[in-house]
Amino acid sequence: MRNMTAHWTGCAVLALTAIWTAPAQADPEFILDARLRSEMVDQDGLAETAQALTLRTRFGIDSGPDHDFRFLIEGENVSHLLGDFNSTTNGNAAYPVVADPEATELNRVQIAYSGFEGTTLTLGRQRVILGDARYLGNVGFRQNEQTFDAFRATLQQVENLTVNYLYLDRVHRIFGDDHPAGDWDLDGHVLTADYTAPAGQLSGFAYLIDNQDAMVLSTAIYGVRWQGQIAQEGSPTFTYALEYAHQTDYGNNPLSVDLGLFRANANIAHNGWSAGLGIENLEGDGSRGFTTPLATLHAFQGWADVFLVTPASGLRDIYVRGGWNVSEPPFGRSLSLGAFYHDFEAENGGGSLGSEFDVVATSRLNDDVVLQLKGAFYDGPAGGPADRNKFWIALTFTR
Predict the structure, then answer these.
(1) CA–CA separation, 386 vs 389, rounded Å?
(2) pTM, full prediction
(3) How far is the C-alpha of 378 from the C-alpha of 26, rounded, in Å?
(4) CATH code for the domain of 266
(5) Which of 44, 342, 347, 396 makes the best surface tag, with the fewest CB within 10 Å?
(6) How far is the C-alpha of 208 from the C-alpha of 294, rounded, in Å?
(7) Which residues of the chain fall short of a pLDDT of 50?
């Protein structure tokens, strides 16, 4: 499967042909997903404040199921309406990074087959989000989505058990084709299994990724996760999760890697209010930290994205959160508010790595439009990482 990328043009033609020639019982659906977003970043040590206004548009067609097949093709464009920022490809090094470079790409082109009982097979460039995307995700917060040239088999042949196997051939990262690290050739195997019982869900996973373009990122991760819920009608709902993962060197990695990850959280929710606390501990050996470069990293260790790469001393993130789903919003269909506080320190040595406060408000204005306001405020220790504040206003249209 090493030359899988060479076949994407043929897959695109096949997908389009199948969609347009599908019989009437297939119900094709046009894809339109647009997000207009303003992002401001003020970071100590940089002369300028980043002011970005970007527009992300995805457009395509989904054939709908037809005789056990389904075909999808989707393009993506990211445009800069205001470009006073470092996109990672525009050369504006005096500005903080807003990792939304201009791009026009084939985002997805895939063929799925579900003719075997309890099994779905998907081949092509596809969106992959496994679990909460801690190890493999689409980096959906950024404008240019991360997608994979991959084969995926999802098996649900045993009651309450879901098994996924993926072969990963190439990852198209958020930085786009103009960035030297915008694509990585992979030789990756992923296996996950989730079993749901009355008391909760037990998950096991293995991510064996041989990175052909960044050899030091070739690793194997094995882990297990348990998550549960305690709920009674009229009473608060309590949820919790425990997870451990171990990372070693794999494939062509010239380095020796032997690191662990532990995370746990507990949350309580009642009448629209929620609160929680958690810890995520990523080991470091003094040379490198536990790393997950294919994850949706923005969702972890604070929205200021200070720790997209785990420090060599590791990272311990202890956090608390609160939320409120407003029962009668003053406008729109729904309104949710949330806040996080993170305290960071080195896992190896225990020195302070700063703290962060994050806030978000999300309103669904109607069936198609979502408005979101979001902020991240990171206060770093003396000697760095540097203090920074980030603000976002985003309007998303999907249909």
Answers:
(1) 10
(2) 0.92
(3) 50
(4) 2.40.160.10
(5) 44
(6) 12
(7) 1-13, 15, 18-20, 22-24
Contacts of 158 (CB under 8 A, 6+ apart): none
Question: Which residues have CB under 8 Å from 109's CB, separation 6+?
Answer: 8, 11, 12, 15, 72, 73, 74, 124, 125
Type of residue numbered 331: F
Q: How many domains does the chain have?
A: 1
Alpha-carbon distance 262 to 223, whole Å?
A: 10
Of 138, 73, 100, 102, the closest CA to residue 297 belongs to: 138
State how far the Cα of 225 lies from the Cα of 243, in Å rounded to an integer: 4
Query: Of the candidates 229, 216, 228, 204, which has an alpha carbon nearest to the alpha carbon of residue 135?
Result: 204
Angle at 95 between CA 92 and CA 98, to 5 degrees: 90
Tokens representing residue 395 in the block: 């309007």
Task: Please state, in angstroms and rounded to a whole number, the distance separating the CA atoms of residues 159 and 212.
Answer: 38
126, 190 in Cβ contact below 8 A?
no
Could you identify the residue written with the tokens 């098994």? 163
Q: Are 188 and 167 in contact (CB under 8 A)?
A: yes
| Spatial contact of 135 and 160, defined as CB atoms under 8 Å apart | no
Query: pLDDT tens digit string along 276-299?
Result: 999 999 999 999 999 999 999 999
Identify the CA nearest to 251 among candidates 226, 289, 203, 219: 219
Segments forming the whole domain that contains residue 390? 4-368+375-398
Q: What is the reported pLDDT for 8?
A: 47
Check if the beta carbon of residue 240 is closer than 8 Å to that of residue 267.
yes
Which residues lie across from 335 on neighbouring strands?
Answer: 326, 363
Torsion of CA 18, 24, 26, 32, to 10 degrees: 80
